[in-house]
Amino acid sequence: MKPVILNIWSFLVRLTARFPSIGSIAPFIPIVAAWWIVTELQIFPRVFLPGPGDVVRSFGLLVYTGVLPEYLQDSMVRLAVGAFWGIALGIPLGILVGLSQRAHTALWPLLLFFQAIGDIAWLPILVIWFGYGLVTMTVVIVYTVIFPVVLNTVLGVRSIPITMERAARSLGCSRTRMLWEVVLPGALPNIVTGLRNGLGYGWRALIATEIIVGTSGIGFLMFDARRAGSVVEILLGMIILGILWYIVDSWILAPIERATGQRWGLVTR
Amino acid sequence: MMQHRLSSALWFCAPFVVLLVLWTVLIPYFNVNPRLFPHLGSVIQAGLEGIKDGTLIQHIGASLMRVAVGTVLALLVAIPLGIAMGVSPVVSSFLTPLFRFFSVLAGIAWIPIATLWFGYGFGAITFVIFNAVFFIVTYNTLLGVSTIPLPVRNAAASLGAGKWAMLTEVLLPGALPNIVTGIRTGLGFAWRGLIAAEMIATNVGLGYMLFVARDFYKTEVIVLGMIVIGVLWLLLDRLLLAPLERATIERWGMVQRS
Amino acid sequence: MKNLTIRNLSKTYFDPYAGTNVTAVHDVSLNVEQGEFVCIVGPSGCGKTTILNMIAGFLPHTGGDILVGGRPVNGPGPDRGVVFQSFALFPWKTVLENVAFGPKMRGVGKAEREKIAHEYLALAKLTEAAGRYPAELSGGMQQRVGVVRALANEPDVLLMDEPFASVDAQTRMTLQEELTRIWQEKRPTVIFITHDVAEAVFLANRVVALSKGRVLEEIDVDLPRPRSWDALNDDPQFKELTGRVLQLVRSA
Ligand SMILES: Nc1ncnc2c1ncn2[C@@H]1O[C@H](COP(=O)(O)OP(=O)(O)OP(=O)(O)O)[C@@H](O)[C@H]1O
Ligand SMILES: [Mg+2]
After folding, report:
1. pLDDT tens digits, residue range B180-189?
2. Do A93 and A221 belong together in one domain?
């Protein structure tokens, strides 16, 4: 018994060494298998817990009818628009608060408080102001993305050693050029971390918004399915959400974060 | 020292005072429709009424109760599980992607299925919170245990630490900073998930209070709810979680990658 | 390159916790000619860093004058290059980009400034490391980059605050020998701060002994150049000079 497991294990190790992405898929195999067995044995009623096959079938159907691609696109566009504005506003604000003591005194407490209110709590009043639609969603996502970006940018700016600034000044760097040459690159690893966190929160906020006030998108798909009592489509939505974010986070954002911080030696480990 | 603290507390409050003054002055000045944004006075009034007739306290109590129950249940399961899985590097490296996947789904994405499985009410919401905290804390615990340097574990073993001592003296304290970080992040998601879930799936709680007020354009109740939500989270995060995290990390000189 | 004049320089810090003034530098006067190598030596806390930071323009002085080429110092500027104890290289720039930074700030074109940088890197035997990031270098290499980065900007005065204090003893000796070699080649005006008496005598034309914020004495060092530790280790004149400076610094 034991050698067989060991053989499988060493095969897996060799495989994941060659194709690292398999390493992130492998643990899902037993989970999906267990899920399949549980549904086949009919431990829970089928309407309550459909099997993997049902989910795949519903995936095929929704792709075929064009609903899924359309919803997916809607969600991604909303996230992208929100993220863009969140970054465009968040980084300058963070640099301002990080550099100027006055701006810090005036804005830092407000930033903490408004972050604490959280995106979702804004939904009711945003709906009153802007109705159901893109504006409301964009505001919510920008609101979610902006705080982690600002707070981390401030942290990054403030963690630049004073000697770095002095070195640049004594090499003839003017205060305005300092922004581009020292402040921005020095804070960059933190900014990327903030962005990663912000997008993580923004992603969830998007789903919540689509669930509560949406008319399209993956969150809406799930909530619509909830209304119709279709567990299959809810599960499908969850799986798509997970996979999408997993791809965005671990194949795009995390490598960027490592690339900036690690080579520069600003991030240990 | 005392004076220093006092003045920094005052400076912290100053921007809020400015904001409140702007609020009292600008809203009447521009003659803003109270159905769009309330006067400060009516928000205060709504708050006092809510306290007097007990509804506000009831909503707050319900929300906090759900968070507490969901979080405690999640921690009871997550920490032992995380430690058990983290001890073996093989198991932990195998399971890491799984838990990352599920921590992505933390909270909000579970709302539709939770309401289907448990119906509207306490069960569904607690389930959402449980999920938000459980996966993130398990993941962080796993990470924390597996990053304890092997020499430290070897040292403990060669000093005669048995299984139990290894757990309480090495693994748990070693993973603690990660666990606390996990709790903080997890609760952040749980709190948001709670508000969202209460908007959909219940008839009591802060989220519900906001969402119902929207139907009647009672902006003063909405704004009151937002302030309460903000203040509660700020208190929870700044007075409890952040100091806890700082204490564990700084005390032991463990630097987080954050 | 121009000469540096310090007249009756003093610095008083306000200590907010004790609520009192602390005078870290009293009435220091010093004249450094163009192309001179001056070492300021003294025990910890005697005000060396304070003096250097005032010359660099990082700190405002509270009395006296600092003149570079006859012009008073007002904030940091490219006429005074600084080498930091903590290196202070830009971690997000390659070694080449770090060294080319000063010329870039002067508006020198890309090709030209890279040529300058390569020239200086060759001077410090760092040609191989040009494309690497500072984090990928050893401490000794990082500090060599720090030195040539300051030099490549061709400052009137080069200010160095215990630049070799954080490298190991062997590397330090190599760096000291290299610094004297580079100095002989380029002849910059240098103010070098250290608490290591042997280092001061080894490097300098003139050693200024400092104690409690005051200049005790200035001692000329006319040991022959090029200097190397092999030759100087048992040189009687070197021994005599270090002994004298050591006594000065310790007696105070
Ligand atoms: N920012 C400051 N505020 C108050 N006092 C200061 C400040 N910086 C330095 N001092 C005081 O000024 C004196 C000289 O400090 P300085 O850093 O110049 O010493 P140093 O000679 O460079 O010492 P070391 O060899 O340890 O670097 C010390 O007594 C120090 O306590
Ligand atoms: Mg010093």
Report:
1. 888 988 888 8
2. yes
